[in-house]
Amino acid sequence: AQKVTQAQTEISVVEKEDVTLDCVYETRDTTYYLFWYKQPPSGELVFLIRRNSFDEQNEISGRYSWNFQKSTSSFNFTITASQVVDSAVYFCALSEGSYNTDKLIFGTGTRLQVFP
Amino acid sequence: EAQVTQNPRYLITVTGKKLTVTCSQNMNHEYMSWYRQDPGLGLRQIYYSMNVEVTDKGDVPEGYKVSRKEKRNFPLILESPSPNQTSLYFCASSQNGGGPNEQFFGPGTRLTVL
After folding, report:
1. Residue B39, CA distances (Å) to A35, A63, A89, B62, B74 in order
2. Mutate which of A2, A24, A102 to test chain B, going by most B C-beta atoms within 10 A?
């Protein structure tokens, strides 16, 4: 069965600290996709990244970086030099490619609070 | 502007009073779905639609109905709402093909059933 685990319920850091949000997934498919979404206090869901199972290259986008490791079924998200505006709930999600749907299986989210 | 809209944004109702939450997208997306978000549970899919007149159940469909008569609209219907349907609801859309794509989410509808 497919499942996404975000073990960190809440993380608090002080501005400029680096922070890593963990995501562990379970799937029996060999083709799957992983996502990260951000939900700021205003409530909307903001797409951050999509990664397919055949691409294990790490990705960097500004202060954001993602580490995808199939060996440990993890897709961790690191924010470098965090800022107050990074305060949000972050969701990791999995979609299995074999069913030809875009259904997302979400983790329970990690609430990040960045203090000035 | 490409977007998914939902109405209403906030709704307080009473048990048993039928309601509809509308969802519309202007991106000509084929795939649309509804999720509910509950504390400690993340988001869970209620129903989805691959295209017009094609709908199917997600993980938590009980107590909900949907329809897809037009490509742009995907309303969520609660025929007889109950307090356990108090939740934050999101509509999403994406373009089919090439594997699961980025889903665009609406702003959310916060529903309270008394």
Report:
1. 20, 28, 11, 19, 25
2. A102
| DSSP 8-state class, residue A86 | G
Q: How many helices (H) and strands (E) does chain A have?
A: 0, 12
How far does CA B109 lie from the centroid of its chain? 9
Give the model confidence (pLDDT) of A8-65 as tens digits.
999 999 999 999 999 999 999 888 999 999 999 999 999 999 998 888 888 888 999 9
Hey, how many other C-beta atoms are within 10 angstroms of the C-beta on B55?
18
> Is B91 in contact with B100 (CB distance < 8 Å)?
no
Confidence of residue B98 (pLDDT cuts 50, 70, 90): low
DSSP state of B73: B
CB-CB: which of A33, A45, A100 is closest to B90? A45
Are B103 and A108 a contacting pair at CB < 8 A?
A: no
Query: Model confidence at B89, in pLDDT bands (50, 70, 90)?
Result: very high
